[in-house]
Amino acid sequence: MKGKMKAQVFYEAEKMKLEEVPIPEVTDVDVLIKIKNVGICGSDISYYYGLSPLGTATGKGPLILGHEFTGEVVEVGKVPEAMGLYKPGDRVVVNPVQNCNACIPCAKGHTHLCENLIVPGVSVDGAFAEYCSSRYTGLFKLPDKVSYAAGAFTEPFACVVNAIRKLDIEPGDFVAIFGPGAMGMMMVQLCKSVGAGRIALIGATNDDWRLEQGKKFGADYIFNVTDKNSKYYTADLKKEISDLTDGHLADRAIVPTSSNAAFEQAVEVSGNCSIIVHFGLPNADDVFKIPALSFHTMDKQIRSAWLAPLSWATAIKAIGEGLVNVEPILTGTYPLEKLEEAIKLLRTNPGEQLKIQIKVS
Ligand SMILES: [Zn+2]
Ligand SMILES: [Zn+2]
C-alpha cells in the first residue's frame, strides 16, 4: 500500500516526534496491519528515557516503538497469500518476537533466542503508528470475543504464561509475587487459575492503590515493604510470611519488577525446595547477593523467565476463555498524539495506573 501515515518516531532520550512517514513496504513474507490498540510496555518507557539501548544495529533511533499491538490486516505478502493464511479485514494480534525457524536455537524450540530475531518496536519499526508491517509467522487471529484492547495484552500475558510455567506450581502452594503492576495483576490471576493456594502480593513505595487492586484480582495478602505510613507496611516480610505458613515460608516466588532488592527478598522469604522466578529486566550492572548456605541447604531453585517462547497459543486461549481478566488492568487509553504524555505519566506518577494503551484507530 503506497502512501503516508502518522507515526511517533523516537530519536533519542526524551525526543520523539509525531511525523508523516511512508507506510511500510510489505515484502513476500510480511503482512501489513492497520493498528488498533498498542500497550505501553515498561521497556518502551526505558527506551524513551534512554535507559536501555534499542535492538537496532546501533542501539539507537530513529525508530517507531510499540510492540504490544492488535490490528486489522490490510495487505498480505505473496507467501502468506499463497498459503491462504490471511486476508484483508482479519483481526490479528502480533507476537513481536519474530524468529526465523531456520537456526539451531529455533530448532531446539528456544525461539526467543533465535539468531536472526527481528522485533517490531525494538529492532525494526513498530506500532506507535497507523500501520505496521510484520512477518506472517508472528501473526495470530484474535478470537471474535476478544476486543482489540484485551488482545493487546497478549504479548505481556504470554510472558506471564511462560513465567508461571517455570514456577511449577503444585496445588495449594503459597506464592509470593513482588511487583503490583500490570504483570503482577496477571500473575495473581494465572497463579490462582493453575492451582496456587494463598498469594501474597508485595510492593514498594507509594504502591498502596496498586496493592489494593491486587486484592481484587485474587491476592490474599498485600504488603508494602517501604512506606512506613502504609497500613500494609511491614518491616519484616520474612516473619509475616513465616507466620502465615506455619514457619514453612513461601513455596514459590516470582518477581515482576526490575528491583534487585525485591529479588533478594524473594529468595529470603522462600522455603525448602522453593522455586524463585526472576522476571523483571535488570539494569546492566545489577548483581544478586544471595546467602549461599541457606540457598544450598534449603535446596532452592532460581530460574529466569525471559520473553515468551512457545507460550502464545496458550496465552490467546487463556484470554479467550476468561482465565485472566485483562480489561480491568487497562487504566488509561490515549490517542497516538498523546504518547509522550502517557509515557511521562507512567514514569513520574504511576500511583493509580497499571496499563496505558494508545488507541490508534
Ligand atoms: Zn512489552
Ligand atoms: Zn532462528
Q: What ligands can be seen in this structure?
A: zinc ion
Structural class: alpha/beta
Question: How many discrete domains?
Answer: 2
- Helix content estimate: 25-40%
Order of H and E elements: EEEHEEHEHEEHHEHEHEHEHEHEHEHE
Low-confidence regions: none
**Count of DSSP-assigned helices:** 12
Q: Report the CATH architecture of the largest domain.
A: Alpha-Beta Complex
Taking the sheet with the most strands, its summary is: 7 strands, mixed
What gross morphology would you assign? globular
Instruction: Report the average pLDDT across residues.
Output: 96
How many strands?
16
Report how far apart the termini are.
18 Å
Radius of gyration: 21 Å
CATH topology of the largest domain: Quinone Oxidoreductase, Chain A, domain 1
Assigned CATH class of the largest domain: Alpha Beta
Strand content: 25-35%
Question: Could you characterize the architecture of this molecule?
Answer:
The protein has 361 residues and is α/β, with parallel strands linked by helices. The protein has two domains: 4-153 and 326-359, Alpha-Beta Complex (Quinone Oxidoreductase, Chain A, domain 1), CATH 3.90.180.10; 160-304, Rossmann fold. The protein contains twelve helices and 16 strands. It has helices at 42-48, 78-82, 104-107, 148-151, 154-167, 182-193, 208-216, 237-244, 260-268, 292-297, 312-320, 339-348; strands at residues 4-12, 15-22, 30-39, 63-64, 68-76, 91-94, 131-135, 139-141, 175-178, 199-203, 221-224, 250-255, 270-278, 301-304, 330-334, 355-359. Strands 3, 5, 6, 7, 8, 15 and 16 form a seven-stranded mixed beta sheet that branches. It has a six-stranded parallel beta sheet with strand order 11-10-9-12-13-14, sandwiched between helices. A three-stranded antiparallel beta sheet has the order 2-1-4, with no helix packed on it. Helix 5 crosses helix 6 and helix 5 packs across helix 11. The longest helix is centred in the middle third of the chain and has 14 residues, at 154-167. 47% of the residues are buried. Bound molecules: zinc ion (2 copies).
